[in-house]
Design brief:
Structural class: alpha+beta
Radius of gyration: 31 Å
Shape: elongated
Strand order of the largest sheet: 1-2-5-4-3-12
Helix content: 25-40%
Number of helices: 4
Strand content: 25-35%
Largest sheet: 6 strands, antiparallel, barrel
Length: 263
């Protein structure tokens, strides 16, 4: 207590000065219309800014919840569409919504970890997509999480086709740019143009036919070469990847066992 009194006495002149300044400011503000309105405007502006910040924070968390809801709705609609299909793939595929919890995009062997595992029915070899297009294939499965081998991994190979003529090629990645991949095994007699659309071929049990893969950026056919060098701009933006869908082919195990028996 004595220390507090000693400090007050020591700075008494300064404290008195501050009190007089505050009193003068209050008298000036409330006895004059213009200063009073200026202070009120400043206060109102601050309150408005504060409310805006609070609103933005609330909106962020609300948007997060809405995104999860939209992802779940997309899966429900895709499952409903799959069950209604009348072609040879009708009812074969089902989809599960998942969220990417870890990922890399700048390595040669990129990976994505999703929040579904064997407890959720996930098995190795299942395809993964999002609303933009192909993402990758389930590589490793744990009880609650799984690791996806994305198409931006140098070990990735995805069977694709041109929508304009159904010609088939293989999508690979050279490890340089996560926005682009390479389409190989396209013979020289094919006519390839920038803007050609590439989708999944349906020739493997991993993905149904017609999932977006990308658009031809450019192609090179050197004299004497038998195959094109084709650069594809990927449909999936891996830099902003968050929600994905695991593709479950009900006949995948049987098809893979038959395929293994031919080796």
């Amino acid at each position: 207590m004595q220390n507090l009194l000693r400090i007050l006495l020591r700075y008494s002149n300064f404290l008195v000065f501050i009190l007089l300044e505050v009193a003068a400011f209050m008298l000036l503000t409330w006895n004059n219309a213009y200063p009073r309105s200026a202070v009120l405007s400043t206060a109102n502006a601050f309150v408005a800014w504060q409310n805006e910040q609070v609103s933005e924070v609330r909106g962020y968390f609300s948007l997060h919840s809405q995104n999860e809801q939209l992802a779940a709705e997309n899966v429900a609609l895709r499952n409903q569409l799959s069950s209604m299909e009348s072609d040879e793939n009708g009812g074969r595929y089902a989809y599960m919504s998942a969220k990417a919890v870890q990922m890399t995009t700048s390595r040669l062997h990129n990976y994505i970890t999703i929040n579904l595992g064997s407890n959720d029915g996930i098995v190795r070899g299942q395809g993964v997509r999002n609303e933009e297009g192909v993402v990758g294939i389930i590589q490793t499965v744990g009880p609650n999480y799984s690791v996806v081998l994305p198409v931006i991994n140098t070990n990735s190979h995805t069977s694709c086709r041109f929508t304009k003529n159904d010609y088939v090629g293989t999508l690979t990645w050279d490890g340089k740019d996560n926005r682009f991949a390479q389409l190989t095994d396209v013979a020289a007699h094919m006519v390839v143009n920038p803007g050609d659309t590439i989708v999944t071929s349906g020739l493997s049990p991993v993905f149904p036919e017609g999932i977006a893969v990308g658009i031809v950026e450019n192609s090179v056919l050197k004299e004497g070469d038998s195959y094109y060098t084709i650069r594809v701009r990927l449909s999936t933006n891996f830099k902003r990847l968050k929600y994905v869908e695991v593709v479950q082919n009900k006949d995948q195990q049987e098809l893979e066992e038959l395929s293994d028996g031919m080796d």
